[in-house]
Amino acid sequence: MFCVECGAEGPTYQGLCARDFLKKHPVVAPPDFLDLDRCTSCGSFRLASGWSKIDRELALAGLLPENIRKLPPWERVTFTHVAREEDANNLSLTVKALGRFEALQSVQDFRVRVRIKPTLCDSCQKQRSRYFEGVLQVRGDGRELTPEEVRGVRTFVLARVDRSGDAGAFISRIEDVHGGLDFYLSTNALGKTLAREVSESFGGSVSSSPKLFGQKEGREVYRVTSLVRLGAFHVGDVVRHKGALAEVTSVRPFVVLRDLATGEARRFKPKDVRTARRVDAERFEAKIERLESGQVVAIHPESEEARPVRPRPEDRTARAVVVWTPEGAYLSRLPPGPSKA
Ligand SMILES: [Zn+2]
Ligand SMILES: [Zn+2]
Fold first, then answer.
1. Would you say 248 and 231 are in contact if contact means Cβ atoms under 8 Å apart?
2. Separation of CA 191 and ligand 2 centre (Å)
3. Structural domain count of the chain
4. Where residue 330 falls among pLDDT bands split at 50, 70, 90?
5. For residues 274 and 306, what is the distance between their CA atoms, to the nearest angstrom?
6. Residue 56 CA to ligand 2 centre (angstroms)
7. Across residues 218-242, what is the average pLDDT?
8. Residue 216 lies in domain
9. pLDDT-based confidence at 314, cuts 50/70/90?
């Protein structure tokens, strides 16, 4: 037999001498990198067959044949490798792939980077979703949370836990309850920290109640429920407090109510303004006009309705931010924006 490529005499494989056959047929098409999922909780690795508790060398030995494409006509391709750790999550593998075809064998050397992906295996995920110690409850103070607050608090808590970088800190589950949110958390400390952060960011009060829940290794285990009550008001709300109309200019650490008729601001502890009620109002920038009678009015930008404005604006003011209520128009200290009960 003659090789069709070089004409050499001797045994041929698909018309080629051994040398030309090996040159023409690589054993595998190696990728630049391979990803390997590893459970951060139990250390299992994910292979095609599922999660298994094996050591890293065995996982790599399973990963290579599962993920590296073998090229025909090579058969019974086997891999050997040497792994070098570049850092905790990156390995550089030097691999030999051995292919067989009829009486021939071919060895192909290549390098591949293995990226270890920290994640949670199915059973650890399940275990976590059942396990909790701390509970964080977020409610409104004498009211339901608004949909914006529910969204905002949820996003805030998820981001905090995500960024904590503590593998032991996790959220088991989140429940939407009537008017609020419950977070089930891996530790009591996490619940307390989150309660403080939520109340600082959204304005509210924190209380906590421990409940004995069992014994672990001879010591008593408590489940602590931390309750955050978000203040009744937001900055910009218009409220009636003890007969006077006021706008809320701050909610923490004190609630500051600015009397709309007099312009005078006073601060209160949140519990001292529980009886205040929100009032339907709009806040916008309006044209200010002086009538011949001497009265100063604000003009609604859409309806063009004129209403006397209090307190009286300084002379020459042509535009001002006003609070527009059924009772009249008032000069505001806040930027224009929606304010609805
Ligand atoms: Zn040849
Ligand atoms: Zn696991």
1. no
2. 24
3. 3
4. very high
5. 33
6. 14
7. 87
8. 131-230
9. confident
